[in-house]
Design goal:
Largest sheet: none
Number of helices: 8
Number of strands: 0
Number of domains: 1
Strand content: under 5%
Shape: globular
Order of helices and strands: HHHHHHHH
Radius of gyration: 19 Å
Structural class: mainly alpha
Length: 178
C-alpha cells in the first residue's frame, strides 16, 4: 500500500515538474503573436537590482529598518522579473514547438535549441522562485540570481536567431518585446 502511494506521489511530482517546465501559455503559431503575449524585461534594471554591490551600498547607507523595507521591495521586484522571464520562456517554447515541424532543417534545429533553452530557463526560474520565496520568509537564507540576466540574454539571442530564420525584419520588434 505504501509503495502505491509513493509511486503515485512520484508520478504527481513528475507531472508537476513537466507542467512547470512547459507552462500553460497560449498557443503561438507565428512570431507576430509574441508581441501581445510576452512581457518586456529591462535587463539593465534587473542587473542593477541583483547587483551585490548595490545591495551592500544600500545596507551601509540606510538605517537597518529602512534597509529591510528596501530589501523586501527589491526581492518582490526580483520575483516579478523572475515570473516575467519564466512567462516569456513558456511563450517562446510554444513558438519553438511549432518550428520543430518546419521542413527546413536549419529552422527545425533552431526550434529544438530554443525549446531546450526555454525548458532549462523555466526550470531555473522555478528553482530561483523557490529560493527567493524561502529568502523572503527566512532572510538569513542567501539568494543569488545574478546570472539569470546573462541566461535570459543568451535565451533571447536564441529566440532572435530562430525568428530571423523565418523573418529577419521582425527581429528588432521581437527583441523589444522580450
Amino acid at each position: 500500500m505504501i509503495a502505491v502511494i509513493l509511486i503515485a506521489f512520484g508520478l504527481l511530482v513528475v507531472a508537476l515538474v513537466i507542467f512547470a517546465a512547459r507552462g500553460a501559455s497560449a498557443e503561438v503559431r507565428s512570431p507576430e503573436q509574441l508581441l501581445g503575449l510576452t512581457i518586456a524585461v529591462d535587463l539593465s534594471a534587473f542587473r542593477n537590482l541583483v547587483d551585490a554591490g548595490e545591495e551592500e551600498f544600500l545596507r551601509t547607507h540606510l538605517p537597518a529598518h529602512e534597509f529591510e523595507i528596501v530589501r523586501r521591495a527589491r526581492e518582490r521586484a526580483i520575483l516579478a522579473y523572475l515570473k516575467a522571464v519564466s512567462h516569456n520562456a513558456a511563450v517562446l517554447l510554444r513558438l519553438a514547438e511549432t518550428g520543430r515541424a518546419n521542413p527546413d532543417p536549419a529552422v527545425a534545429n533552431a526550434a529544438n535549441e530554443l525549446a531546450q533553452n526555454a525548458i532549462q530557463l523555466r526550470l531555473y526560474c522555478l528553482l530561483l522562485l523557490i529560493r527567493l520565496q524561502a529568502a523572503v520568509i527566512f532572510p538569513a537564507i542567501p539568494h543569488t540570481v545574478h546570472n539569470l540576466a546573462e541566461r535570459y540574454q543568451r535565451f533571447t539571442d536564441y529566440a532572435v536567431h530562430f525568428v530571423a530564420l523565418g523573418d529577419p525584419t521582425f527581429t528588432s520588434r521581437m527583441s523589444a518585446a522580450l
